[in-house]
Amino acid sequence: MSNFDPTSISRFRFVRRAFDADSGRVELAYAFDDGEEMVETLVIPGAPFALDAARQSAVDAALRLLHLIAGVSYFKAAVPPEIVVDDGALDAETAALLTSIYENGLGEFAYNNGLALRGRIRFPVDESTGTRAMPTVGLEHRALVAIGGGKDSLVSIESLRDAGVAQTVAWIGGSQLIAACAAKTGLPTLNIERRLAPRLFELNREGALNGHIPVTAINSAILVLVALLTGHDQVVFSNEHSASYGSLIPGTGEVNHQWSKGWDFERTFGSYIERRVAPDLRYYSLLRPLSELAVAQRFARISGYDDVFSSCNRNFHLLGEKPSSRWCGHCPKCRFVFLALAPFMPKPRLLGIFGRNLLDESPQIAGFDALLEFRDHKPFECVGEGVESRSAMNALTERAEWREDALVRRFADEVLPHLDGDELDLADQLQPRGEHRLPTALAARLTNT
Fold this sequence. Notes:
Blueprint: E1 11-20, E2 25-32, E3 38-43, H1 53-70, H2 72-75, E4 82-85, H3 92-105, H4 107-113, E5 140-146, H5 151-162, E6 167-172, H6 176-185, E7 189-195, H7 198-206, H8 215-230, E8 232-237, E9 247-249, E10 253-255, H9 263-276, E11 282-285, H10 292-300, H11 332-341, H12 347-354, H13 365-372, H14 386-396, H15 406-415, H16 426-429, H17 440-447
Parallel strand pairs: 1-4, 5-6, 5-8, 6-7, 8-11
Antiparallel strand pairs: 1-2, 2-3, 3-7, 9-10
Helix pairs in contact: 1-8, 3-9, 5-10
């Protein structure tokens, strides 16, 4: 029986945070009203950490930012009207960043729970709080690269390797899939242990509000802290420009499942880190100028990861459970990755990766229609734009090895007549575009390959 009533909660509190340089242990504490603390912990490998004054100042700023961003996991359980930061109100810039992360990053959560968050999330601001220029830290020229076990991060890792950039691949949590993929790179690895407060799981069972959170924003804040402690001057993610495009919901507007993978978050967060944490720490997504299809094209050129990579979210669990298969074959990510790779990869290789042909399974029609945004909206998942799926499917209608498969044949007969031919050009989807934060040399290299 439910015994937690979100409507009875009036305040969400950021209680305290702590970092022990000798053990690498981080504690982030939160509470509702005057209730018990909810304490999240992380353990960062490499301790003990020796920190000079400049490094300590940056670490303190990064730790506070992590505390504030990671709180979204707990705030959402009740979405109370008041937010309290126990050690003092925020400056206006920090409050604006957090408001954007909470409002936009909880967009899907709000939609699914029938909530309106705009104007409801108000971080306490002290207008008299000044800002000061942060000193450079003296970080080494090497990249801390987030690896997720999928094709995108592997494309980034191999692109950085080709460019001669020293790198460490890092991930958060106990996924055995990611660990195997990281090991296959042959590069130095760093695995951060993260444990959510046990009380949060209890609240979820007792009736707390639940749903999608901006995980990439939290992971970004974690890796910024890790980079400062381990001496990396770059934190690199692998989010393409398609991530900025959400699902268009009739009567609601755009809801972006992957908002914290999008350009708005990257631009704002990266600039904040350089101004307010460490001027010599650069945060960027290496794949930002590329579409999902352009990333798939680059992955198809890479060998050696077919037997370890997976983009199936159903096979990734926070507690590190080991799935029986790397691909479930029934979720939006499986469908999209299969479709995105099909134009660029020999059919036998692709079928060998998935163990089946998703485009020749009629029960998959509704799922692929959502990817195509044909009589349905884009799924709440990290998948490419509808125009990318339509371009990829159209390209397959012109390939002898694919055109007789059930879903490709249906696309040609039933979907294609309703589409504008101008949006079916696969070559156009492969062109680099849009703003990015890449270092100049990397940007030139990426866009010319």
